[in-house]
Design a protein that fits this description.
This protein is of the alpha+beta class. The protein contains one helix and five strands, in the order βββαββ. The strands form two sheets. A three-stranded antiparallel beta sheet has the order 1-2-3, with no helix packed on it. Strands 4-5 form a two-stranded antiparallel ribbon. The longest helix is centred in the middle third of the chain and has 9 residues, at 48-56.
C-alpha cells in the first residue's frame, strides 16, 4: 500500500496468481489516516480489516479487538 504525501491518493499492489493488480483511489475531500510507524520493524503492519477500514475512510486509532468464542468455548480472537 502506498499513500502520497498529501494523503489524498492511495495505491495498493495485490498479487493474484498470474500477475499484479493495482488498485488506485483518489479522494475529492479529506485524507487517508496513516497508522503509526514502527521504527523497530521498519514498516507499518496492517491486518486485512485495518487496510479495508483505511480505504473506506474509517478511523483505526481507537480500534479495539473483542474476544470471540467458538461453540466449543475456546476463545478465538478475530480481527
Amino acid at each position: 500500500m502506498f499513500i502520497n504525501k498529501r494523503r489524498d491518493k492511495i495505491k495498493l499492489l495485490h498479487w493474484q496468481g498470474s500477475g499484479y493488480l493495482l488498485y488506485y483511489k483518489r479522494l475529492e475531500k479529506g485524507t487517508f489516516e496513516i497508522p503509526r510507524y514502527d521504527a523497530s520493524v521498519g514498516s507499518i503492519t496492517l491486518s486485512y480489516a485495518q487496510m479495508v477500514m483505511i480505504m473506506d475512510g474509517l478511523s483505526i486509532k481507537n480500534l479495539q479487538k473483542r474476544i470471540r468464542f467458538t461453540s466449543l468455548g475456546t476463545p478465538v480472537n478475530q480481527g
